[in-house]
Design brief:
- The structure holds three protein chains of three kinds.
- In chain A, 66% of the residues lie in helices and 0% in strands.
- In chain A, helix 7 runs antiparallel to helix 8.
- Chain A is globular and about 65 Å long.
- In chain C, strand 2 and strand 3 form a beta hairpin.
- The chains are: A mainly alpha, B mainly alpha, C alpha+beta.
- Chains A and C meet through helix 3, helix 9, helix 10, helix 11 and helix 12 of A and helix 3, helix 4 and strand 7 of C.
């Protein structure tokens, strides 16, 4: 039925008789001008994978320097640039585009729509990203080097910086515009183009989480844009938004930035929650437990995420009332998050589970993301946060939720849907190796960082006191192991794309029940041109 | 905004609905951006910022809340 | 809804039993607490730090219990509810009672955590009725301590030699955590710190005291501590402030009341002696010798001991037009800094110190201007800048 793709990545399916759309460009022009949600999804995912390795190399350089006390490899200023760009690239270049890639591929398929609402704007949303990434990387080579104030760009330090900071600000504006356009597309598609019979409360959880994520993006990306614009004008146009001498306040930036920044972390995790909510029911062969409360939980997490921002600023010198409010509000988010964890567990409970690679990553997510949640709760408690703010405990916390959380969920989703996208089953042995290697090395890298944090090691330092040496060495070894393990994924991915593996049936997963599994594998280039009717 | 429109047969209606949704959402994004910066110039900046922040929260509650009832 | 022995109710029962069992275990085995040493904060030396320490232990064990209960259930499920052992899926998918239970119970647990935390926050923020007030100023890259009531102040610079950082020498025991002039306080006194910064945001932190407060330029924030043990306590700057962020530690010596009084008297005397007359005329050799020390404490990080700077980042002083050209240009640069670069203003140094370091740069390495810059020139230049 379906031709196994050879030279082109996915979806190139000549023998399906859709010749009325006939003359698609081929080669490079195909990818530059495509308005097809599957192609654009692929572009986002491959871009994200590339940026993941670029940011990963920066991380390995950081860990190489931190292998032992003393300065061995890089100058302190360059080290600061590495930590800054590692953060920016991973957040804006790897995690967020990967989530959008999954959305592009899956949302139309799961709601029975032929494509996204604005197919051409979709193309533009993607193609804004490579220039922005190029600007970030270019910033290493301009006089003064890349921005070195941390990905959080606090003034006055960021006002002091050279041209690299301006490049970063422009890149952030461009990526923000891309996200906003993508979100407009997703909201419009989900609200207006669902197949008949698919009410919102019948929609797959992945679509729900992306709908809410899209609203979050619309709400906060403009705020980020506002804050970095003010930074730009303080740097070059004589304003003093963040300069006390001119009547401004450096802490204002922190408030505006974190008003964006906290919802941003939920923007990075909610799509992953959605993926997990598709995978666990499939491999437990049971419906998702408590669908309605899962939806309400995601909605409440999203709304609560707006009133907790100052927990990133507990040491800034807030009055007690502020400390108390933000502590209570932050702790409150643990409740809906806990509900989700329990619901996933209840989905597994009394199921008939098998443990193919997607399920392995989903369980790994459940286990490690929850650990990250616990350390988040610890950090929410202001008195403890005073001791842990700006230490490696924070670094451990957010890597647990973003890497073992978001990234593992993306791997789960990739293995889950690759058979559908490419028509080829991925190699299960490779998937298992990838999972176990990632799992083990991830923990070797990041678990010791909790110890470093409670012992008092600050973040963003290229050199450290002797008592921190042992755990740093362990973490550095783990980091290299983790980095190398990701190459296993690349091998598995390339084999899939090349068709080197078993042919995938329409429904390779026994327990899968969403619309995309009713389509052939690989999915044809155009799908659901006549919408299905949903019971 | 329901999805009882079958695309392909009612293309024009769908396109208009999509455009309306998109413009509404885009307008909100623009308003927030302008609001963040304008709040620094108009009157007491703390008050201005709080207004923008509250607007963001209200938007979110309404946008998500409307969909929860369907 | 399927009423089922093995359904969600059973799950909830299992969770509850698991939690109770583990809580009992934790209560019965206090010795286990020692095993978690690596998860403990630094030994506390103030009452507030003690509260933070205790809260951390309390929360840690609550998390461990919940973790074991929840994942005990998960691993049980992974073993028992598998297709490969023939288990068939039971098709329940909602249970409102159970959902309410596992929403309310976590909420109650959170209340239990919030209560002690609230008390500590209120105590932390009470800076009233201090015995001593010290002003702390963060600079790139050192701390300034001003004893406001006693009329003296000093800088506190990292004293670890560059040779150790660059791996040319064995690292000392307090590597990166030692300074030339620590803050000194008496034991048992309530010390209020008023904290600000001279350039960018820094953060003053001593974990053993439970203190961490951001230093924000143009604003003053306060915090307090009351040290209850003698000793030397160390911390580090805790807000990224540029290149040398990792190299500006905080060191506080807690002395007995008598030793503190002696130290205080000593400091006041030093201040009187060192209050150099800016009208004094120095020889070039004396200025350069003094200047070399100033250079080593303040300039070497960027411009290097060789005066050659770092290509592409920090300009060389050896052979520099500014250093070998007209003196007033170099004086102005030191007083105002250079915006858009990492070169800060050094106006906080004394007139004599600035004169000395300029003289040193003008007469070292390949520079031989033969000039001696006098403190009086700096005094005059300040009027213009």
């Amino acid at each position: 039925m379906s031709a196994i793709p050879h030279d082109h990545a996915v979806g190139q399916n000549e023998d399906h008789g859709h010749d009325d759309h006939g003359h698609h460009p081929t080669g490079i022009m195909r990818w530059i001008t495509t308005t097809n949600h599957k192609d654009i999804g692929t572009l986002y995912l491959l871009f994200s994978l590339t940026m993941f390795f670029v940011g990963g190399c920066m991380a390995l350089t950081i860990r190489a320097e931190l292998f032992q006390p003393g300065l061995q490899i890089v100058h302190p200023e360059f080290f600061n640039s590495l930590t800054t760009l590692h953060g920016l690239i991973m957040i804006f270049g790897a995690i967020m585009p990967a989530a959008v890639g999954f959305a592009n591929w899956q949302v139309p398929l799961m709601i029975g729509a032929p494509d996204m609402a604005f197919a051409r704007m979709n193309n533009w949303s993607f193609w804004l990203l490579p220039p922005a990434a190029f600007m970030l990387i270019l910033s290493f080579f301009v006089p003064g080097g890349a921005a070195a104030g941390g990905w959080t760009l606090y003034p006055p330090l960021s006002v002091q910086a050279g041209m690299g900071m301006d490049l970063t600000i422009f890149a952030v504006h461009i990526m923000g515009a891309s996200s906003i356009m993508g979100s407009i597309n997703i909201i419009t598609t989900i609200l207006n183009m669902r197949a008949p019979g698919m009410t919102l409360m019948k929609m797959p959880m992945f679509c729900w989480t992306w709908l809410i994520t899209a609203y979050l993006l619309i709400a906060v990306m403009p705020v980020l844009a506002g804050s970095v614009t003010m930074l730009l004008t303080d740097r070059h146009f004589g304003t003093s938004f963040f300069n006390a001498a001119g009547g401004g306040d450096p802490v204002l930036f922190q408030h505006v930035f974190w008003f964006f920044g906290h919802p941003e972390v939920y923007i990075m995790i909610l799509p992953s929650f959605g993926i997990i909510s598709q995978i666990i029911p499939t491999f437990a062969r049971k419906p998702l437990f408590g669908y309605a409360s899962m939806v309400y939980a995601v909605a409440s997490i999203a709304i609560l995420s707006f009133i907790v921002w100052a927990h990133h600023m507990f040491t800034v010198g807030m009055p007690a009332a502020g400390l108390l409010f933000f502590m209570y509000a932050t702790m409150l988010i643990a409740v809906p998050t806990g509900v989700k964890v329990f619901n996933w567990l209840a989905t597994m409970w009394q199921g008939s589970m098998t443990f193919e690679t997607p399920m392995l990553f989903a369980i790994g997510f459940l286990f490690l993301f929850t650990m990250g949640g616990f350390t988040g709760l610890v950090l929410a408690l202001t008195p403890i946060d005073i001791q842990l703010q700006d230490t490696y405990y924070v670094v451990a916390h957010f890597h647990y939720v973003l890497v073992a959380g978001s990234l593992f969920a993306f791997f789960a989703g990739a293995y889950y849907w690759l058979p559908k996208w490419t028509g080829t089953m991925y190699n299960e042995k490779l998937g298992q190796w990838h999972f176990w290697a990632s799992m083990i090395f991830f923990n070797i890298t990041f678990f010791p960082m909790h110890f470093l944090g409670v012992a008092g090691m600050p973040r963003r330092i290229p050199d450290y006191a002797q008592q921190f040496a042992d755990w740093n060495m362990v973490a550095s070894v783990g980091a290299f192991g983790f980095g190398l393990s990701q190459l296993i994924f690349v091998i598995a991915l390339v084999k899939c794309i090349r068709g080197d593996g078993a042919k995938a049936p329409a429904k390779p997963w026994e327990g899968a029940d969403t619309l995309e599994w009713t389509l052939p594998s690989p999915v044809p280039y155009h799908t659901f041109e006549t919408p299905p009717v949903v019971q | 905004m329901t999805a009882q429109i079958t695309p392909g047969t009612d293309g024009a209606r769908l396109r208009h609905a999509n455009l309306r949704t998109a413009l509404a959402v885009a307008l909100i994004a623009v308003l927030f951006f302008v609001g963040v910066i304008a709040s620094q110039f108009v009157g007491n900046s703390a008050v201005g910022m709080s207004v923008v922040a509250a607007a963001v929260l209200v938007f979110l509650a309404v946008a998500i809340g409307r969909n929860l009832r369907k | 809804m399927v009423r089922n022995q093995r359904g969600p109710r059973a799950l909830a029962r299992m969770l509850a039993t698991g939690t109770a069992g583990l809580a009992a275990l934790a209560a019965l085995a206090p010795g286990l607490a020692n095993a978690a040493l690596d998860m403990d904060l630094q030994p506390p030396v103030t009452p507030i730090a003690q509260q933070m320490y205790d809260l951390n232990v309390y929360i840690f064990w609550i998390c461990v219990v919940i973790f074991c209960a929840v994942f005990g259930v998960m691993f049980y499920s992974i073993f028992k509810h598998r297709k490969s052992v023939g288990h068939k899926a039971v098709q329940f998918h909602e249970n409102t009672t159970v959902e309410i239970v596992w929403t309310v119970i976590p909420f109650l647990i959170l209340l239990g955590m919030a209560w002690p935390a609230t008390k500590t926050i209120l105590a932390m923020k009470d800076t009233s009725a201090p015995d001593i007030t010290i002003k702390v100023t963060g600079y790139q890259w050192k701390w300034g301590y001003d004893y406001l009531q006693d009329g003296f102040g000093f800088y506190s610079n990292l004293s670890t030699p560059l040779a150790q950082i660059e791996n040319r020498e064995q690292k000392g025991p307090n590597y990166l955590l030692e300074v030339d002039h620590p803050m000194v306080v008496p034991i048992g006194a309530k010390v209020r710190l008023v904290i600000t910064a001279g350039d960018v945001i820094h953060s003053w932190s001593v974990p053993a005291f439970g203190v961490k407060q951001d230093a924000i330029p143009g604003y003053v924030r306060d915090t307090w501590f009351k040290a209850e043990k003698l000793g030397t306590y160390r911390g580090q700057c805790s807000e990224l402030c540029g290149k040398e962020h990792g190299f500006m530690p905080v060191v506080v010596e807690v002395k007995s009341k008598e030793d503190y009084a002696k130290w205080l008297a000593d400091q006041k005397q030093k201040v009187a002696v060192a209050a150099e007359d800016p009208a004094k005329v120095w020889t070039e050799a004396d200025l350069a010798a003094k200047g070399e020390k100033i250079y080593a404490a303040n300039c070497v990080a960027c411009h290097q001991a060789t005066g050659k700077g770092v290509v592409g980042a920090f300009p060389a002083l050896d052979g520099s037009k500014i250093v070998t050209g007209p003196a007033d240009v170099q004086i102005a640069l030191l007083l105002t800094g250079k915006t858009g670069t990492a070169m800060p203003s050094w106006k906080q140094l004394s007139d004599t110190d600035i004169a000395a370091v300029i003289t040193y740069t003008r007469n070292s390495w390949g520079n031989h201007t033969g000039e001696a810059i006098q403190p009086a020139q700096i005094v005059a230049a300040r009027k213009e800048h």
